[in-house]
Amino acid sequence: MALDSLPILDISQLDDPDKAEGFRKQLREVTHDVGFFYLVGHGIPQQLIDEVLDVSRRFFALPEEEKLAIENVHSAQFRGYTRTGKELTNGQIDWREQIDIGEERATVDGGEDYWRLEGPNLWPAQLPELETAFTEWRTQLSALALRLMRTWAVALDAPEDVFDEAFGEDKAFSLIKIVRYPGTSDENSPQQGVGAHRDGGVLTLLLVEPDKAGLQVEHEGEWIDAPSLPGAFVVNIGEMLELATNGYLKATLHRVESPRVGTDRISIPFFFNPALDARMPQLALEGSGLSVDPTNSPILETYGDNALRYRLRAHPNVAEIHHKDLLAK
């Protein structure tokens, strides 16, 4: 099935008994065939969307020393600010600056290695409203993501709550990235913003500021442009949901091209992930098996093992400071 653009799904149809089954069928088909779609009718207030975009821009406008005060080299949990060029995808430099915000929790002593990822966030002292806005953002998007998960469950002929245990009460290990891509591309030479990859969690809800492009999604060997759509999130499947469905739902390759020189782009992905020690339930579906990762790395059954592996690879400078013993393994 050739595509010129991503499908658009309206989740408000779930509120109409005459349309709910049609939405579930469309959700199942789109995420089986494509793995990416635009989501509208989601109910996230436009005022909150505007607020998180505005406070994100204000953070990146801070003086360099104020951003570096919360640089992720100060965090064993890989939280905080990453300066441009300090994150890797498949060993190649991603040209972006960003903040990583996880669940706000105490650190964990002992146990499996992945528990090292639990801990506090680093917040900019000069911009307290960033913490306020993104705490609310996490609350609202977590509820939306869980609603999607329950809808998928029904659409896949499973109990509505089949995925609930993996996320648990206050156990989910979701992650927000606030990303700014400085422009480095010219008309004839697109540059890497983020290299081709699959997301390692369960699902992603991506907000891109209006009138911005750069995201590209692989489908049947071709790259489809996925520019921002007013009022919509871009939603995609992560590897843990692919694992749970035996490859029936696909974690799709995607990448981001750097904006043109003289411009930039803000995007805010919300990664809805299960508890670090969670294993996703296995649904009895006739899938095509699991995708081959660009790095030839298998999807691990326990989410925390995947998350830790990704962090150590993406941020070798942080790993060298805080986790030398893991690198030695």
Summary tags:
4-stranded antiparallel sheet, 8-stranded mixed sheet, 21% strand, Jelly Rolls, 14 strands, alpha+beta, 329 residues, 9 helices, globular
The percent of residues in helical segments reads 25-40%
Q: If you compute it from the alpha carbons, what radius of gyration comes out, rounded to the nearest whole angstrom?
A: 19 Å
Q: Helices and strands, in N-to-C order?
A: EHEHHEEEEHHEEEEEEHEEHHH
Category from helices, strands and their pairing: alpha+beta
The top-level CATH class is Mainly Beta
Number of helices: 9
**How much strand?**
15-25%
Strand order of the largest sheet: 1-2-12-9-14-7-6-3
Largest sheet: 8 strands, mixed
Whole-number count of domains: 1
Number of strands: 14
Overall body shape: globular
Mean pLDDT: 93
Taking the alpha carbons of the first and last residues, their distance comes to: 44 Å
Predict the CATH topology.
Jelly Rolls
Q: Any guess at the CATH architecture?
A: Sandwich
CATH homology-level superfamily: B-lactam Antibiotic, Isopenicillin N Synthase, Chain
Low-confidence stretches: none
Task: Give structural notes.
It contains nine helices and 14 strands. Helices cover 30% and strands 21% of the residues. The mean pLDDT is 93. Helix 1 packs across helix 4 (128-155). It has helices spanning 20-33, 46-60, 64-68, 128-155, 164-171, 239-244, 303-314, 316-322, 324-328; strands at 8-10, 36-40, 80-82, 87-89, 92-94, 97-102, 175-182, 192-197, 203-208, 215-219, 222-225, 233-237, 254-257, 264-272. It has one domain (8-328): B-lactam Antibiotic, Isopenicillin N Synthase, Chain (Jelly Rolls), CATH 2.60.120. The chain is an alpha+beta fold. The strands form three sheets. It has an eight-stranded mixed β-sheet. A four-stranded antiparallel β-sheet has the order 8-13-10-11, with no helix packed on it. A two-stranded antiparallel sheet has the order 4-5.
